[in-house]
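As a warm-up, study this chain.
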Amino acid sequence: TSGVMAPPGENFPCDSFFSEIFSALTNAKCSTRLPMACHFRRAIAGLISKAARVPEEKITPWIQLSIPKFSSAGEFFLPIKPLIDSGVLAPAEGRESTRAAIANLTNKFSCQHPVLKVEASNNGVHFSVDKSVLIKTVLSRVQQDRDHYGRNSELFNRNKAEKIIVEYSSPNIAKPFHAGHLRSTIIGNFIANLHHALGNKVVRINYLGDWGLQFGLLAVGFQQFGSEEALQRNPIQHLFEVYVKVNQAAEENADIHRQAREVFRLLEHGDQAALSLWRRFRELSVEEYSRIYKRLGVQFDEYSGESMFSDRSQEVISLLQETGLMQTSERGTGVVDLSHDNSMSFFATVTRSDGTSLYITRDIAAAVDRYERYRFDKMFYVVDKSQANHFQQLFKTLEKMGYSWAKRCHHVKFGRVQGMRTRRGEVVLLEDILNEAQTQMLDNMKQAATTKSVENPEEVAETVGITALLAQDFQGKILSDYKFDWNRALQSKGDTGVFLQYTHARLCSVERESGMSVPGTCDPTLLQEHEALQLLQQIAGFDQAIHRALTDLEPRHILSYILQLSHLVAAAHRSLKVKGSPKEVAQARLLLFHSARVTLANGMALLCMTPVDRM
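Now compare it with the structure written out below.
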C-alpha cells in the first residue's frame, strides 16, 4: 500500500471546505441533516471531487464505513472498480487499470483535518479520520436521534416522500394459512416498515383470495361436510378441512365441479344466498387472520380481495374487447397477445370460455383502482417466485392497455421454506408455527438460570421465538429456498434471533446495574480501547446497512449488521467494565453501550422484531 499523511500538528494546504467541515463537526449545534458518518463522507467526497473533478453527490453513496472486525487500514473505504464500472470515474489504460486508477487518484490527494491519512490498496482507497471527532459525533447523534437514529442520512433521497403500496400475506380463504404466507407476511411487513421509517407514505394491503371457483367448491363442500359449531370455533381450520374433503369427493364425483361452477356464476351475478354464505366465510376468516397477525406484530391499512373487483373486472373485459386487445382462443377463452411480434408466443388468458373473470382480470382491475385512489410512486407485490409468470403477464397487459404507471409495479419474489414442521409432524397452519416457536423457546428458557427473574415468561418466549423465526428467514437472499432448522434457530449463541434478544437484554442490564444515568456526552479520549473503537465504528455505519436494504429490499443487510454489532458488544462487554471503573470512564462506557443498545433496537424494529429488556 501507499499513502499520504499530514505531519503531526500540521495540515496540507487544502480548500477551505475542510475547515468548514471540521467547524460543523465540532459545533454542538450542527445540522440534523448531517448525522453520524455523513460529516466524514462529505469531507472525503470533497477530497475526491477536487482530485478527480467529479461532483461530490456522485461519490458520497460509494463511501463506506470499513468493517471494523476485518479492517485496520482506516475507518472509511472507497471501492474504485464499481465507480469505474458505473462511469463515475474514468478508467485508466493498461492491464492493471483499477490499480492505475487508484494510484492516479491517491497521488492527487492532500489531507486536512478531520481526514488524517489516505492509503491505497488493491481494490480501493482507505481513509483514516480523527477518532476523537468520530466518537464525539456518533455518540452525540445517537443521543439526539434516539429511535430515529440511522434514518437521517444523506444516503437517502429526501426530495419528497414517495407513496408506496405494499401488497403482502394475501392468504386464500379455505386454503391453509401456511409457511409460504409467513414469508410473504414478514418480508412484506419489512418492506413496509422500511419505507415508513424513511418518511414515505405507505399503504399496507392484504389482498385476500376470497373469490373464484375455490369459493364455489367450498360452498358445495360446506353443504355436505360443514359444521356451524366447528366454523365458529376455528373457521380457518374448519374451512380447510371442508375444502380437503370436497376436493377428495370431487375426484369420484365430477358433478361437484359443475355445482361449484354454478355457485360461482350465481355469486358473480349477485345471488343473495350465495353472497350471504360468502360474506360469513370471509368475515370469520379475516377475524381469525387478524388475531394471528397481532401475534406477529403485523397490521394492515386495508383488507382488500378479489371479491371487491368482480364488477370492475367486467369493465376490464369490456375495455379489452373494445380496444381489440382481447381475442378468442380455439377453446373459447379470452386472451391478450403480449408478444413483440404478434405471434401469441407470450399471452395472458383473461376470461374463461363462459365469459367469467379470472384471477389476472381481477388483478388488473385492482391495480387500476389503486392507482386512481393513491397515485402511487411504487407498488410492491410480495408473492413467491412461482408466480413470476403471472406478474409478467399482469404488468405487460397493463402496459398494453396504455397505463404508463405499470413500470412502477414490482414483483418481490421469494423462495420457499422446507422443513418447517412441529414435533407432531408437518405444519399445516401458520398458527402451529407460532405456537411451536413459543413452546420450544419456553422450554429453553426453563433450563436457563436467569429465567426466574422474568415476570412474564410466556410473553417473552413468544417474542423471542418469533424473533428467532424472523432471523433465520432473513439470513439469506429472499429469492433463495432454505431449510428451516428449529435447533439452529433457537440457539442462544451464533447468528440467531435469540442472540440478538440476549444482547439487547444484556445491554439493558448494564444500564440498570450501573447505578448512573446515561450521560449526554463524554470525553472521547476515554474510549480509545480497540474494542470501544470497533464498536463505535459499527454504530456509525448503521445508515449504510439501511441504505443497502432499501436498494435491493433485502432484510439480510440489516440483520447481518445488527448481528455483527451484537458480536462487537459481546467483545466490548468482556473487556470494558462499567461497574468498578472510575466515574468518568464508567460514564463514557455506559454512553457507548447505551448507543449500541439504541442502534440494535432500531435495527430490530426495522426487521419487525420486538426487543425484550429481560430474558
